[in-house]
Amino acid sequence: MDFDYNGGNTTNTNKRVFNRLGGGQSANDTSNHNHLQQNQKVCYHWRAGRCNRFPCPFLHRELSAPPTHAAVNGGVGAKRGFVGNDSSSSSFSGRRGNNGTNGNNSNYSNSWGRFGNKGDGRGVRGGSVEKVCTYWVQGHCNRGDTCRFLHSWSLGDGFSLLTQLEGHQKVISGIALPSGSDKLYTGSKDETVRVWDCQSGQCMGVINLGGEVGCMISEGPWIFVGTPNVVKAWNTQTNTDLSLTGPVGQVYTLVVGNDLLFAGTQDGSILVWKFNAATYNFEPAASLNDHKMAVVSLVVGANRLYSGSMDHSIKVWSLETLQCVQTLKDHTSVVMSLLCWEQFLLSCSLDQTIKVWAATESGNLEVTYTHKEEHGLLTLCGMHDLEGKPILLCSSNDSSVHLFDLPSFSEKGKIFAKQEIRAIQTGPGGLFFTGDGTGQVRVWNSVAVPTATT
Question: Sign of the CA dihedral 48, 50, 56, 62?
Fold first, then answer.
């Protein structure tokens, strides 16, 4: 991630902050203090009552709420309106793709991205410089509360770090919580799967696979692990251990839908298996070969399979016929992750965008909103906060995870790591998990946001 040192030249740092936000004059010019503070974040130290900088490059006042009819940032507008859904019936689907039931809630905005996005400072609660203090990471920052960089792995309200799970030596590529199990499973490119006790956080066992874990999912009591040239299938209730052969190269992504198991592979194929209850085995059912390069993301929703590829395209497949019914070519780089939410498909790419897709009257998908970031985007995951409001988590290749309120796409908070976060998984009771490139797994918990009292 983008670390910075807390011992650098303050004037130069202020200039960098000022110039990044569009200023053209010296950050030390007190006559331009009001101009300097326009469109910036609220000072973290001012909120804590201990800011001693003048001029301070951040706001010493609370930001006003975004206007109801604010224009979408960057000129990227919504083609279609969006009516929010009742949080009690709406649901996210990550790899499995369960559709929610449409509803109506007047508390939600009626269009994607309507409120201010990244850069206006409205979304993130807190105004510290969004960099983790390098000295704090090393365990010896001597500035304490006066340090202007973060002494935390997160920024924002509504979630907190519960614990860290240490043991993997390389990037975490999959996290799974099988139904009915009290164990957490994590897969890594260090060629192992680790089993953790959910109560104690202790590692209960290490499974050596002899190949890098490209992905891992759970469906009911089953765990599926993608490795080079094979998919491993384990049933945590019966201790069944199966090996599904057929993939060529690494298996990058897996999903279950319509009683079928789909695997996206390095050679651009999507292999399909169907479970045979009589033989208690998965039997080959089909091979889908329309992509020209590796398939790295799969999701199921609305009786469709959606596949994202290194060829920059998303293909839409009928789950009934297993035929490709549409190819989406709006991304300009690898489509890294897909998510179904209600009637929408969300996709993120190394082209630095999240795209929201909705069906037209003809049934074809089109982009209804595009959200732009400063870095390539890696993984999407959806959840609801403790108030039932939808939250989108999106990791980027600057080693951070953005938390967005939906449908406004205003930034609610941010999670930082030493290296890229490639795996995000939600759990019960507001829990969610992140795994980064160092092999570290962090457990996070949703918490109630304190409300102001008069």
Answer: positive
* Consecutive H or E run containing 256: strand 251-257
| Contact of 203 with 195, CB cutoff 8 Å | yes
| Residue type, position 226, single letter | G
Distance CA 60, CA 225 (A): 50
Residue of 159, 144, 73, 168 whose CA lies nearest to 112? 73
For 219, other C-beta atoms within 10 Å of its C-beta total 18
Task: Quote the tokens at residue 87.
Answer: 């949080």
**pLDDT at position 428:** 87
What distance in Å separates the CA atoms of residue 340 and residue 51, rounded to the nearest whole number? 44
**Ranges of residues in the chain whose predicted pLDDT is under 70:** 1-129, 135, 450-454
Distance CA 64, CA 75 (A): 22
Rounded to whole angstroms, what are the CA distances from 44 to 52, 112, 144? 12, 29, 14
Instruction: Return the pLDDT at 269.
Output: 97
Q: How far is CA 383 from CA 322, 325, 389, 393, 432, in A?
A: 29, 29, 8, 8, 9
The reply to whether omega before 67 is within 30° of 0 (cis) is no
**Model pTM?**
0.73
Q: Are 309 and 347 spatial neighbours (Cβ–Cβ below 8 Å)?
A: no
Q: How confident is the model at residue 118, as a pLDDT?
A: 37
Question: pLDDT value at position 387?
Answer: 87
Which residue type sits at 181? S
Where do we find the tokens 């300009």? 332
On whether the CB atoms of residues 358 and 365 are closer than 8 A, the answer is yes
Question: What is the Cα–Cα distance from 290 to 389, expressed in whole angstroms?
Answer: 37
Say how far apart CA 78 and CA 75 lie, in whole Å: 10
Nearest to 157 by CA among 178, 186, 179, 127: 127
Strand intervals (E) in 289-410: 295-301, 304-309, 314-318, 324-328, 335-341, 344-349, 353-359, 365-372, 377-384, 390-396, 400-405
In sequence order, what are the beta bridge partners of 13?
A: none
Task: Give the torsion through C-alpha atoms of 406, 408, 409, 415, to 10 deg.
Answer: -60
For residue range 360-373, list pLDDT tens digits in order: 988 899 999 999 99
Q: Is the peptide bond before 55 cis (omega within 30 degrees of 0)?
A: yes
Which pLDDT score, from 0 to 100, does residue 452 have? 56
